[in-house]
Amino acid sequence: MRQRASMVRRVVGLGALAGVALTAWLGLVATPPAEFFGNLVRLLYVHPSMAWVAFLAFGVTTLASALYLWPRTRRPEWDLLAAASAEAGVVFTGLTLVTGSIWGRPTWGVWWTWDALLTATAVLFLLYLGYLALRRIPMDEERRAKRSAIWALIAFIDVPIVNQSVYWWHTLHQRPTLTVGPTNAVEVHGIMAVALAVSFVSFTLVWIWMVWARFDLARRQRVLEEAEVEQALAERLEAVEAGS
């Protein structure tokens, strides 16, 4: 069973790698420059998909945290899954901020501006960095898991704020690329839409592989730590019995 899971994870990893390579080829070679943005439009083949994966990751963290807090479904695996997904989410949020900044410099003339969407995304990044920092504080394992889960539920409040900020505040950042307007018209067509779709699937596979690998590693570490504790207790007990 474990070998089959390992094989499936390997297939997911290879699929993610192939998808990212295909995204790069589509984005850099197959698609033409945009009429208005020129070659800068190629950033759109990675930037929105990274933001999507960040939202997905934090959504899974929130769901797993809620399942941990609920007494009937409380299991350590939910806590490990929440942490693994949060780590991936922080990585993709950081990449979203970096690619957004690269887009902003030639488009807006600045690397960074306190636009509503950018600010809310930066706050999201800091909130989940705080979540990961909380998990590093030495304390009882169950207490740490509960506090981390509560933090995760609170932090997720910022996700819909990020998503809706371009509609609530009409600031510098444009609305999503795949906007369905009053005429139901989609702004991206043809090979550009294909490249964007491949990008979304590919980075989602990358997230699945990352979370799966990190979760499996954390679970192995937990089993090893429990075995070490049991061995230490057994050795201590033997020493006490030998002394008596």
Automatic annotation (TrEMBL):
Keywords: Cytochrome c-type biogenesis, Membrane, Transmembrane, Transmembrane helix. Pfam families: Cytochrom_C_asm. Its main location: membrane. It comes from the Bacteria. One of its GO terms (biological process) is cytochrome complex assembly. Belongs to the CcmC/CycZ/HelC family. This is Heme exporter protein C. The lineage of its organism: Bacteria, Bacillati, Actinomycetota, Acidimicrobiia, Acidimicrobiales.
